[in-house]
Design goal:
The structure holds two protein chains of two kinds. Chain A is of the alpha+beta class. Chain A is built from four helices and two strands; from the N terminus they run H-H-H-E-E-H. The chains are: A alpha+beta, B alpha/beta. Chains A and B meet through helix 2 of A and helix 6 and helix 8 of B.
Chain lengths: 90, 268
């Protein structure tokens, strides 16, 4: 817990940690997609996308979400800053 | 009379399936219903000792399936209640001695003579579990307020849906109210948030369950047992009664709200 959280009175009781861990593990279990395989998928996605567009490789985020019975793979893929792209174009 | 077949299962071991089976069986039979409990945990039988009938076993489930005895000969009458019977598991065989079809045949043979057939499933998701759920009209899942047990329950929910035995109902067992109050244990609401299943009971952690298992007399027979009362309520809900859930999570009571207001970290 950060000092800031402590001052605000935000507690990190273990039940909350348990619920968060449970939600995460169930999302991966239900999709049959482990965090490791999700990382591999992300690497593949980056290499395919990079053939078409310059992306900010380190900022790519991919995650599994769940709302009711619908599971979703969410990817946030920022493009490389325009300046960097221009520089490489020259 | 045609029995309803209820299979008690969990995925994870040690969460209280056998205790739940015995206590629900006693609770139903104490209300005058005719009940037979079947121990489907072949090779690791324990329902006999929880019910206190271990000394009366002559024939078992595998003897019935393999035709060495008649069904009636393997049914052990309870010591306390005249309408309660046990069909014990074999201790020296393994799960493959029985098939899901055998269990369906057995249940069909018992159905006309009983109101309830309770099947105590083994832990795991393999053959023993498949045997136990094959004849089920209802699957009751037992879990504890722990990440590992709830995770396994979620897996079971998926499997019983795939076998068209869902939707199941959930028992949250071994809840420690004081830990829930301190925010150090998952609440029943937390568990229901993540599992797609309906609640049928919340059972507190209770020393009387261990005392009962020492003596071989289920906790529902002990009027002072909180766990026993919770199992009695589960039996009433199975019969279709609307029974309010006793508030184990005292944090939602007046004093709980008060303490959250005055304590730091009270979530304001």
């Amino acid at each position: 817990m950060s000092l800031f959280e402590r001052l605000r009175g935000v507690d990190r009781r273990s039940a909350r940690a348990a619920k968060e861990r449970l939600q995460l593990v169930l999302i991966h279990d239900r999709a049959d997609l482990s965090p490791g395989r999700l990382e591999a998928l992300k690497d593949d996605l980056i290499s395919v996308l990079s053939r078409h567009v310059e992306i900010d490789v380190h900022a790519v985020q991919i995650s599994l979400t769940q709302e009711r019975n619908q599971q979703r793979l969410v990817a946030d893929i920022p493009l490389a800053p325009p300046r960097a792209r221009r520089r490489e174009a020259h | 009379m045609t029995a309803k077949v209820v299979t008690i299962t969990s995925g994870k071991g040690g969460v209280g399936k056998t205790t739940a089976t015995a206590n629900i069986g006693f609770a139903l039979a104490s209300g005058g219903d005719r009940v037979v409990c079947i121990d489907a945990d072949i090779g690791l039988r324990n329902l006999d000792v929880i019910m206190g009938l271990e000394n009366r076993i002559v024939y078992d489930l595998v003897d019935v399936v393999e035709g060495r005895c008649k069904l009636r000969q393997a049914m052990i009458k309870d010591k306390h209640l005249s309408d309660l019977y046990l069909i014990p598991a074999a201790q020296t065989r393994d799960k493959t001695a029985v098939s899901p079809q055998d269990m369906i045949r057995l249940a069909d043979e018992l159905r006309p003579d009983f109101d309830w057939i309770l099947i105590d499933s083994p832990a795991g998701i393999e053959r023993g579990f498949r045997n136990a759920i094959a004849p089920a009209d209802l699957v009751v899942l037992v879990t504890n307020p722990e990440v590992s047990a709830v995770r396994d329950a979620d897996r079971i929910i998926g499997l019983i849906e795939a076998e068209e035995r869902g939707p199941g109902k959930l028992i949250v067992n071994r809840v420690r109210a004081e830990m829930v109050k301190r925010g150090e244990m998952l609440t029943t609401e937390d568990i229901l948030d993540v599992l797609a299943v309906e609640l049928i009971g919340v059972v507190p952690e209770d020393e009387t369950v261990i005392l009962s298992s020492n003596k071989g007399t289920p906790a529902v027979l002990d009027s002072r047992s909180k766990a026993g009362r919770a199992f009695m309520n589960i039996a009433r809900r199975l019969k279709g009664e609307t029974v309010p859930f006793e508030s184990l999570e005292a944090r939602d009571g007046f004093f709980g709200r008060l303490s959250r207001l005055v304590k730091p970290g009270g979530g304001l």
